[in-house]
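ENTRY TYPE: protein
WANTED: fold as C-alpha cells:
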Amino acid sequence: MVLNNFRYLLPKLTKGPVNLCVKYNISPNAISIIGFVVSSIAAIGFAFPSIFLYNYSPIASWFYWWWAGIPIFLFFFGGYIDVIDGSVARKTGKSSKFGAFLDSTLDRLSDAIIILGLMYGQLIFIWNENWNYLIGFMSLIIMLLISYTRSRAELEGVKMAGIGLMERGERYFVLVFGYVIEWAIFAIDTQYFEGSYSNSKWFFPVFFIIYTLLCLQTLLARIRWTYKWLNNKMPEKVAEILAKDAEKAKNAENTENTENTENAEK
C-alpha cells in the first residue's frame, strides 16, 4: 500500500542490474530461481539465531557485530532480485505465462520458507515452543491467503493493487525493520548493559505478533474490497480505477513505441 507511492523509483534502482542481466543473457526464469535460492539461504540463517542474530564473538577484527546481518542482508537481497526478473522479461521480450507462474510460485515458497526458518529458530515466540509454531503457522496461512485472494479476485476482474497495509513489499521491509531493531537492542545491551536483554529477548516476538495482525488486516481488507467490487457497492470508485488503469496502459504503450523507434533508428 505505502510502497505503491514509490514504485516510480524502481526503474532507477534496478536499471544497472537489469542491464547487466540483459548484457549477459541471464533469463528471467533463472533470475527468479536465483532469488529463491538466496531467500532459502537467508531462511537457514534465521533458523539458527544462536549462530547469527545472537552471536557477537569477534569472528574477525573487521567483522565484529556484523555477523548477525548476514541473514537479513540475504533476505533483502533475495527480494531485490525478485524485482529484477520482471523488468528483464519486459526488456528482452521474454515475458511468458509460465515465467509469471514460476515467479509467483517461487514467491510463495520464499514467503513460506522464511517463516519456517523463523519458526525453527524459535524467534516468533521464544517463551513457548507450541505458541511459537502456532503463531508461525497462523502467520504463514494468512500470508499465503493474502496472495491467493489477490490472484483469485483479479481473475474476476477486481483491481487489487494497494489494498491492505501489508502487500509483499511492505512485508519485506517491515520484517527487515523488526529484525534489525532486535539486532540493535541485543548488540547495545551486550556492549553496554552486561547482556540483561539476553534473558528476555522480548522485542521480536511482540513485533511479530503485531506483524501478523497487520497481515490479517490486509487479508480482511482484500476480502471486503472484493465483496464490494463484485457486488457493485462502489460503482464510481470502480469506474475511476478502470479509467486510471486504461490511461496507464496507454502511456506505457506510447513509451514502448517510442523506445522501439529509437532502437530502430540506432
Summary: The mean pLDDT is 85. The domain at 3-233 is CATH 1.20.120.1760 (Four Helix Bundle (Hemerythrin (Met), subunit A)). The two ends are 40 Å apart (CA to CA). The helical segments are 10-23, 28-47, 69-92, 97-120, 129-155, 168-192, 203-230, 235-265.
